[in-house]
Design goal:
The complex is a heterodimer of chains A (180) and B (380).
Chain A: H1 15-38, H2 40-48, E1 54-59, E2 65-70, E3 76-80, E4 90-94, H3 97-104, H4 110-115, E5 119-123, H5 125-142, H6 145-151, H7 163-179
Parallel strand pairs in A: 1-4
Antiparallel strand pairs in A: 1-2, 2-3, 4-5
Helix pairs in contact in A: 1-2, 1-3, 1-5, 1-7, 2-5, 5-6
Chain B: E1 13-16, H1 24-30, E2 36-39, H2 42-46, H3 49-56, E3 66-68, H4 77-89, E4 94-98, H5 102-116, H6 120-123, E5 135-138, E6 151-154, E7 157-160, E8 168-171, H7 173-176, H8 181-199, H9 206-228, H10 233-251, H11 257-269, H12 273-290, H13 298-304, H14 306-311, H15 317-330, H16 350-360, H17 366-378
Parallel strand pairs in B: 1-8, 2-3, 2-4, 4-5, 5-8
Antiparallel strand pairs in B: 6-7
The chains are: A alpha+beta (180), B alpha/beta (380).
Chain lengths: 180, 380
């Protein structure tokens, strides 16, 4: 047998998909920060979390990543994508770039993705559940109904989120997320 | 039945469905492996399956040690030794078997050689007492039975050990949808036989029943459509899932009369064992239906669902289960003859097969084997 016929194969990179995911993580991170100021429900969810709460959401094994945490004065802040020696209290690992693409192109919601074993959570389960609820609210604000319906388990009813709150909150979150 | 007197082992983790191949890097790293030897055949490489697998490993820390694309369907000692050498030369630490049948058995045999650090022929007599190197099985829909079980076939040997289960089974439609209708028929009939024989034993095991019933349910639901259209994604994934469940059930139950006879015939004639099983199963079920114990009525529940099961009077459930099973076998009618005569097996060979089977599996007597062969030969 000629062993040279069967070469060693090094894995290539999926640059475009990684860039897309990095942008999406940045948008979601900034939107969480903005929603914590704008939306009462998100504010309450964050208030229930520990004071040192720090979320790391990243794509295994080489990133990109997103850090969101609570500051000393209790405010929620997007801390960027670089690991600056943070000690996350909740780590959400997405198993592969393709799994992240399914999640961030809204082909699969967070609940479906978890059920299909694409996410690994390291941290307290109540914190993870709270974060999923926060992500759902943020997605409802960020995305038009037709897309958000795919991304969340249940799209909120009129009684849960009236159109005035939704559209006003959407404008505020977009302005805050992309300006300061 | 006392439901707690049993033992059961199912080692493999099954990753099935959309983008299942992309789970491989994570699973490999969790098994502490980063450099797999990938084994596949020229046929699957030509169909682009090797490329699909390679792409699934992009953006990970996994380097393919060697992508061997010339695996034959027969696991000979020569190929096992050559691949073991390749594994060692490249410093690999795990194996991925991309394909079913011979490919999976070659991978298992290579795993034994490199893990036990001995020759393949010596492995036959050794007792495996510790886990082998990580083995990931990525089956195509041409399963021949045993790929995902705790058994390895190589040359003319058969090795059984709990450590021979693959660590992970990855079932993805990008891999499964390339088999032909004939291969799917063979795979489904093998799984059907293994599942029925696993839950038809004297003291049934409730966990084993769960696996066997899942296999039966998948086959009944998806076989007719998949046979007509082998590239049907959901169907091919369901058939391979059924094969995985049936293999696990088969590993936890004694070998049945149909499996033993079909193996004996397939070894001698080089026919696909699933096709032979399909013929023998029809007559074995008919004999069982009229025997004392009969067919287990729970099979109807697995095949037809709770509504039909509840609607059918208790005394008719065995017959109804039999009818459903025959319907499954009939779905493969275009590819499987109804008698052994249709396979051009000479009548004088039947005694020899019965003797071989009786020597291999002593749970049944030679005349029982012969009686089933005689019935299957003419279709009486």
């Amino acid at each position: 047998m000629n062993a040279l016929q069967y070469p060693e194969i090094k894995p290539k990179k999926k640059f475009i998909k990684r860039i897309y995911i990095a942008v999406m993580l940045w948008v979601v991170g900034r939107a969480i920060q903005a929603a914590a100021k704008v939306d009462r429900e998100v504010k309450e969810e964050f208030a229930k979390l520990k004071d040192n709460f720090l979320l790391k959401m990243w794509i295994w094994p080489n990133g990109p990543a997103m850090y969101v945490g609570k500051t000393k004065d209790g405010k929620v802040k997007y801390l960027g994508w670089k690991d600056k020696g943070y000690k996350p209290t909740l780590t959400m690992t997405i198993k592969s770039v393709e799994a992240a693409m399914l999640l961030f192109t809204f082909q699969e919601g967070t609940a479906i993705s978890t059920a299909r074993n694409r996410l690994v959570v390291d941290g307290d389960l109540p914190d993870a559940c709270a974060l999923v609820r926060i992500l759902n609210i943020v997605e409802v604000y960020l995305l038009p109904k037709i897309i958000a319906k795919l991304a969340v388990k249940r799209y909120p009813k009129w009684s849960q989120m009236n159109p005035l709150r939704k559209h006003f909150g959407r404008i505020l979150i977009y302005v805050r997320a992309f300006t300061f | 039945m006392i439901p707690y007197n049993f033992t059961f082992l199912s080692h493999p983790k099954i990753c099935s469905g959309l983008k299942a191949l992309e789970h491989i890097p994570f699973e490999l790293e969790s098994l502490n492996a980063r450099k797999p030897l990938v084994i596949t055949s020229a046929r699957w490489a030509k169909k682009g399956l090797a490329k699909t697998l390679t792409k699934a490993l992009y953006d990970s820390n996994i380097t393919i040690g060697a992508l061997f694309t010339n695996a034959p369907n027969y696991p000979s000692v020569t190929i096992i030794n050559e691949l073991s050498k390749l594994y060692r030369d490249r410093g690999c630490d795990s194996i991925i078997a991309l394909g079913s049948g011979g490919i999976a058995h070659i991978a298992k045999a290579v795993n034994m050689v490199v893990s036990l650090k001995t020759d393949i022929l010596q492995c036959t007599d050794l007792t495996i007492s510790s886990p082998l190197k990580p083995l990931i099985c990525v089956p195509t829909a041409d399963c021949e039975g045993g790929e995902m079980a705790s058994v390895a076939y190589y040359e003319r040997f058969e090795k059984q050990s709990d450590f021979l289960y693959p660590d992970v089974i990855v079932i993805d439609s990008r891999i499964t949808r390339h088999a032909t209708a004939q291969e799917i028929a063979n795979c489904a009939l093998t799984s059907l036989t293994h599942a029925i024989e696993a839950c038809g034993i004297v003291a049934p095991n409730p966990i084993n029943d769960a696996y066997a019933h899942t296999a039966l349910s998948f086959i009944y639901q998806y076989l007719p459509k998949t046979i007509k259209k082998p590239c049907y994604k959901d169907g091919s994934v369901a058939i391979v899932n059924a094969a995985a469940c049936a293999d696990t059930a088969f590993s936890n139950a004694p070998q049945g009369i149909v499996h033993t006879l079909a193996q004996a015939i397939a070894l001698d004639t080089n026919l696909q064992s699933g096709i032979v099983m399909g013929i023998l199963l029809r007559y074995s079920l008919a004999a069982k239906l009229h025997a004392k114990g009969g067919i287990r009525p729970e099979l109807l529940l697995a095949l037809a669902g709770i509504d039909t099961y509840a609607k059918t009077p208790e005394k008719d459930r065995q017959k109804a289960a039999y009818d459903y099973l025959i319907k499954c076998i009939d779905a493969t009618g275009n590819y499987v003859p109804t008698t052994l005569k249709g396979l051009h097996i000479p009548h004088y060979k039947l005694k020899e097969y019965a003797r071989l089977a009786a020597a291999k599996n002593k749970q049944h007597k030679e005349n029982e084997y012969l009686a089933l062969l005689e019935k299957s030969f003419e279709g009486k």
